[in-house]
Design brief:
homodimer; alpha/beta; 5-stranded mixed sheet; 12 strands; globular
Chain lengths: 326, 326
């Protein structure tokens, strides 16, 4: 009998990763192609499916694709629409329709952070959890909220935009047009802004002072912290303080078992997690204190995105199976 | 055949209301007895069940009680425990055990705001909704969060404490021991504190200046607003501003279809809802704007609490039925 797999697709501004994945996280095939973000969406999918066709021909009958899961910025779970995705010149496009023109299978779409949350639940550190938050600390801050074993999509598919909660009233300007959003502080770009603020506000010495604007990345800030650079350490401390305080609010809503961090900035480990934990605990209502685990994603950066997309469709197929049986 | 009903119990600091309720909100019997908060919990339940016994004897075979739902401050859904409830000298007590000593039936316990949310879903204004927030604006601020048709309890049963989110950093002191909690601003007592602040900060004339501390209730503030008292109107405006801003954050988490307000302060209607709506919309991310309904509970104050408790157990019996069928 042919092995059941799903096609997981993670669409980024630069590259699109995809793979065929079994139920137990065995990635049977994995590839990445340029997204070519200036071209329309159907160009990307045409190239992607010609690759998939090759693999299926080679495996000839050994694989049965059961469905397609797609993680994409602004992807809407209910409609399959992607509306004006940042960094992609797509306009509004329905990815379910687009994929089903190529292959007549169940397709599920959501944003990258929701897919990452499901990836942790199926293949990662949240395997036995039913209530947790997944926070991606990349260029921005993304979030996937899981309640009772299901991703929270809200009534319209747009729940989980924790990056755009107000962290500082009348604070830093955000690309969304508002001010003080959490992701202007707690993200790789937020950390960079904090370092620039600290460099401007004083003449304190710092390794980072010698870098040009281009060179000043979150990786460089991490390396400076590793060398004991006080200003870099202060920048991490401030970032963790803003994030920890807001997470205390999150817990008052949702009382999750854990908060899981993924993405580039999460790899800074205790430089970021230690102040997050301190300021979170400090601001918690007593009933929540010392209960919520702060964890780093256990999935490797290269695999987590397509595993998330795969988990998205496995999860859907499982839920459908349950509904049909009942 | 005997009619199926449930026993709904709402325990307050002063009175305990209870009733026998059918599936369609028909209250077949309703009564209220003093809670006598200084006595232990089993004293209350003994008195309550002797009343229930009387009713069952009168109705002799006409009624079949299918289960018991209890709304109580600090009630934990998972364990049935009530731990150190405010205003009740109970210590820690398990209400499921206590009730099942009297009557061997399914018993479900939760806090009053969660029960109120279920009451709105079964009998009230949220009948066809699957994602909404219920906010009770009484002495404090309580909240029940419904996602995908189910109350969010979190991993330990303590989710939904929106009253203790930080609304103002280092703001007003709260009974929980922290500062700046939302309920120190957005509640009947918060409104009172705002009026006192406004009276102290200036010598502006106001009807409210003639009242003693005892007399200054949220009802009096409402009446002053009705008479056009500028200071009272400003107090409502400020209360709505603080609440509206925080609700913009709530929507970024949960993207609910509606936010429903109940409790004494909600009866002030547009005095409170108008500024809430204005500041909420002003602070929303574009994708959420002009989508979320702000509604007042349609259930009468006298009935909503026991209808909530009844909905709690009807909901549980329905879910159990579904699980058994599947």
């Amino acid at each position: 009998m042919a092995e059941k797999v799903v096609l997981g697709i993670d669409i980024g501004g630069t590259n699109t990763a995809f793979g065929l994945i079994g139920q137990k996280s065995d990635i049977l095939f994995q590839e990445s192609i340029p997204t070519e973000s200036k071209k329309p969406a159907d160009d990307l999918f045409r190239r992607l499916f010609s690759k998939i066709k090759e693999v299926r021909e080679i495996k000839n009958g050994e694989l049965q694709i059961a469905g397609v899961g797609i993680g994409v910025p602004n992807g809407n779970y209910y409609s399959g629409m992607v509306e004006n995705p940042p960094n992609l010149s797509w306009g509004d496009v329905n990815l379910i329709d687009l994929v089903q023109q190529e292959i007549n299978l169940p397709v599920v779409v959501t944003n990258d952070a929701n897919a990452a949350a499901l990836g942790e639940m199926y293949y990662g550190i949240a395997k036995n959890m039913k209530d947790f938050l997944l926070i991606t600390l990349g260029t921005g801050l993304g979030s996937g909220i899981v309640v009772n074993g299901r991703v929270v999509y809200g009534h319209d598919g747009y729940a989980g935009e924790m990056g755009h909660m107000t962290a500082v009233r009348d604070g830093r300007s955000c690309s969304c047009g508002r001010r003080g959003c959490l992701e202007t502080y707690a993200s790789a770009s937020g950390l960079r802004r904090t370092v620039i603020d600290l460099l401007m506000d004083s003449s304190r010495s710092s390794i980072l002072r010698t870098l040009s604007d281009d060179q000043l990345t979150s990786k460089k800030i991490y390396e400076a912290a590793e060398k004991g650079d006080k200003l870099a350490l202060d920048a991490f401390e401030f970032t963790g303080k803003i994030l920890g305080r807001k997470l205390a609010d999150s817990i008052a809503y949702l009382s999750p078992e854990a908060i899981i961090f993924s993405g580039g900035l999460a790899e800074a480990g205790d430089y970021i997690l230690k102040p997050v934990r301190f300021y979170m605990e400090k601001n918690l209502l007593t009933i929540y204190k010392n209960k919520v685990k702060l964890l780093q994603s256990g999935l490797s950066a290269g695999k987590s995105a397509i595993l998330g997309a795969a988990a998205l469709i496995w999860n859907e197929l499982r839920q459908k199976g349950e509904d049909e049986e009942s």
